[in-house]
Write a structure and sequence with these properties.
Layout (H helix, E strand, L loop, with lengths): L3 E9 L2 H14 L4 E9 L4 E10 L1 H12 L4 E7 L7
Antiparallel strand pairs: 1-3, 1-4, 2-3
Length: about 90
Amino acid sequence: MDKRVGFVGIIIHDRKQWAEEVNKILSEFGETIVVRTGVPHVRDKSSVIMLVVDATSDQVGSLTGKLGALPGVSVKSMLGKQNGID
């Protein structure tokens, strides 16, 4: 399966409760993450993380599945077209 470039958006609804678990999961997929940036949202104690990934669709599915299984985390992803043509 070919790797493709894409992004993953993550919202952690309660940083204190879920940030450590999210970081553990992201570490498991470190080889697929090209860029990671995060911004805390102080008012409601949440955080937003954006990843640029170079991964197979299976890898992205595994990553987003693990993150999405956490009750305090929302996640969405998109991969670019394979070879720019599909």
